């Protein structure tokens, strides 16, 4: 979802103040990094994660004066953003958390890749991964929408799973531009390091309940949220179930806090029972 220029609308005003505050934490000018004319390598997850968090929170602060949500949800890194929006994480700690998460993920010694499988059911993808596990570790990692599931694991096993997916009737298998096998058991070292970091960060009970990716439950305490953020690195993002749970809980309007519509289109594919809006004007 990240792209240079994604925060240009915040060149002035409260949004820019948020970027200035993030820059104080990071030790470099974050707004300059995300400008459209930036020459910085925007593929570095150490930079991308705090940049996305700050951009989405700037959008959140712009929108929240109009409404108060009943629940918050986040996809992967978005859970850190949700924690900040819910009042669990102070903004400087949220920036530190995003930066540290990015660094730990980038530096994790686990080698591997991720690939989006298009056109198969979750059961078919699970079967494909099980069959491909004969050549290495590969697991479903992101259940994004019906017919759109990301797999993660060792390079050879992911490639084999992609072959099997296409043979089973999958329409496409699209490699993702990531530096490791995220949301898989291969990230155990990273998850332990991140849990240690989180133990040094102050978290409060969320003022707005958060629907968690890992166990698809409503998180209402700081302890639950701390565990969620650590466990997330080695577990799949259960986004389809998250949206379905939101509907069961009575949610009928979904507003995406993102510089580009990504989650909203996924939600539309999951259910017809939610109105999908964007915070973008």
Can you put this structure into words, describing what you see?
It is a single chain. This protein is α/β, with parallel strands linked by helices and 281 residues long. The chain is 44% helix and 14% strand. It has eleven helices and nine strands. The chain has a four-stranded antiparallel beta sheet. Strands 1-6-7 form a three-stranded mixed beta sheet. Strands 8-9 form a two-stranded parallel sheet. β8, α11 (263-270) and β9 form a beta-alpha-beta unit. The two termini are 18 Å apart.
Order of helices and strands: HHHEHHEHEEHEHEEHHEHE
Q: What distance separates the N and C termini?
A: 18 Å
The proportion of residues in beta strands is: 5-15%
Helix and strand content put the structural class at alpha/beta
The residue-averaged pLDDT reads 94
Count the strands? 9
Helix content: 40-55%
Q: How would you describe the oligomerization state of the chains in this entry? A: single chain
Q: Estimate the global geometry from the Cα principal axes.
A: globular
The number of helices is: 11
Rg is 18 Å
Uncertain stretches: none
């Amino acid at each position: 979802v990240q792209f240079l220029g994604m925060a240009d609308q915040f060149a002035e005003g409260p949004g820019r103040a948020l970027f200035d505050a993030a820059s104080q934490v990071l030790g470099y000018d974050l707004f300059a990094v995300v400008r459209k004319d930036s020459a910085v390598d925007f593929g570095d997850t150490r930079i991308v994660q705090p940049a996305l968090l700050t951009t989405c929170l700037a959008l959140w602060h712009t929108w929240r004066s109009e409404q108060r949500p009943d629940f918050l949800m986040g996809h992967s890194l978005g859970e850190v953003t949700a924690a900040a929006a819910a009042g669990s994480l102070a903004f400087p700690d949220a920036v530190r958390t995003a930066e540290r998460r990015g660094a730990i993920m980038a530096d994790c010694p686990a080698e591997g890749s991720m690939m989006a499988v298009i056109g198969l059911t979750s059961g078919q993808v699970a079967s494909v991964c099980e069959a491909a596990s004969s050549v290495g570790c590969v697991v479903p990692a992101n259940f994004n929408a019906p017919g759109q599931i990301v797999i993660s694991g060792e390079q050879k096993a992911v490639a084999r799973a992609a072959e099997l997916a296409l043979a089973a009737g999958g329409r496409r298998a699209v490699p993702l531009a990531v530096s490791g096998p995220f949301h898989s058991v291969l990230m155990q070292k990273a998850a332990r390091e991140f849990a240690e970091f989180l133990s040094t960060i102050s978290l409060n009970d969320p003022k707005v309940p958060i629907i968690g990716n890992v166990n698809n439950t409503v998180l209402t305490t700081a302890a639950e949220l701390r565990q969620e953020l650590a466990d997330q690195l080695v577990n799949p993002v259960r986004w389809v179930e998250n949206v379905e749970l939101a509907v069961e809980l009575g949610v009928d309007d979904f507003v995406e806090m993102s510089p580009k519509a990504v989650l909203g289109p996924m939600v539309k594919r999951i259910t017809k029972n939610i109105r999908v809006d964007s915070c973008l004007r």
